[in-house]
Amino acid sequence: MPSFDEVLKEAGEFGRFQKRVFFLLSQTGITFSSLFASVVFLGRAPENFWCRIPGAAELSERCGWTLEEERNFTVLPLHLGNKSSNGECERLDGSWDTSISCASPLAHYGNHSAGNLPLITCHDDWVYEQPHSSVISEYNLVCGHAWMLDLSQAILNLGFLTGAFTLGYAADRYGRMPIYLLSCLGVGICGIIVAFAPNFTVFLIFRFLQGMFGKGTWMTCYVIVTEIVGSDQRIVGIVIQIFFTLGIIILPGIAYLIPTWQGIQLAISLPNFLFLLFYWVVPESPRWLLTRNKGEKALKIMRSIAKHNGKFLSPHYSEITISNEEVSNPSFLDLVRTPQMRRCTLILMYAWFTSALIYQGLVMRLGIVGGNLYLDFFISGAVELPAAFLIIVTIDRVGRRLPFAISNIVAGIACLITAFLPEDIPWLKTTVATLGRLSITIAFEVVYLVNSELYPTTLRNFGVSLCSSLCDLGGIIAPFLLFRLAAIWLELPLIIFSILAVVCGLLVLLLPETKGISLPETVEDVEQLS
Description:
The chain has helices spanning 4-11, 16-37, 39-42, 56-63, 67-81, 135-139, 147-174, 176-195, 200-227, 236-239, 241-257, 261-269, 271-274, 286-291, 295-308, 332-336, 339-365, 373-382, 385-394, 401-420, 426-453, 460-488, 492-508, 523-527, and strands spanning 49-51, 90-92, 119-121, 126-128. With 530 residues, the chain is an all-alpha fold. 44% of the residues are buried.
């Protein structure tokens, strides 16, 4: 009986069929990356808002004031009384009598001098010039509630983490395509509910679920693409990342054309329903079918693949074997029991955590540094495109370890330099920051490849799932670290990022090189890597 790899070589390892499936499933990367980075535009800080004094709405309606006139009556006296107050988080302690004059509604404060106007902290009476432009204005995530925006992104990443374990297990048990299609349906439905959530609690619940299903779509499409190509085509795991970058590039265009956060949310969610059409054009992974003892179905799909690729399988094939079955119940101890495995596991876990935290931190930082958010976001996304090409050019020439280490170290140095560059030379600050973004993107994409190459077949899926879960943990921490430290000093997060990246670059040098070697089959093979 031939092995699966032997049959795949005869059917075509990367023919017309695989290229079609690769192109279709790769579109998932566009929608997933848009969800991943959407907080930058969903959570844009409102330009003008203030705290409304009780009775102001009725008086404004009676007097026919515009929002600007109401703001002037509310904020200007407050600013005169307290130079440090801009009327956003504090208001005058009192209420307007709706029967008083429209020309001087604050006349009854005349007994107070300008420096002694009574103030009180604002709680929920904010007014926004553009009330539906952002999640912040929709749910009053300002002043003392500003941390809730950090929470919404952390909840999304918690959904990613949950999806990695639950849907990853489900895809191994019930099949790649059923879980992929279920996840696409879940992302679309949850995305619609998020857009029309009546309150912030409902918003968080379904943002968590959208993150969970979103991770299911990205993870399963990645697995399917890598399982239907030959072992010499590992590079598709890098190329598929280009579609993730395309989503980052497209997102600012969507946000620029759509003025409301609900519109943006729907634009990045509804395309997932189109992926349900893949049910008729993308088959189940034949590798998975073989692990479930469904050899006849696998062979039927392989014959279809061969036909689409213009090739023919031998009519004598009646069954396919698959070697190297996985450990039935792998555990974390299997990953740290021997010295080389222990070193690889700990370093890779740190590399996943660092790459995700820095990458997501730099993406979200664009929303708080000022400038043209749409243009800056587009440029920062466009510079990621060379990352995949640089990896493709270098890893088969100089290996994996050196580009992995250098990209982390360069990212760390770039973050450190950016933090101390003066604001009056923005072109240089932007250039250095862009170099840091490109470098951490390279590191993030290389860790996908290196992780799978450093684990034996018996532990590969479990090892990659466990280590990559640190990626989502980094994403949970990133918004709190960025926004809270930036409140102290805008560039302080960059200092933290630089330290983490340089340490990661040095640790990566302790990993064995995997250039030009076969994938390890057993733990003993890993221990013999130099």
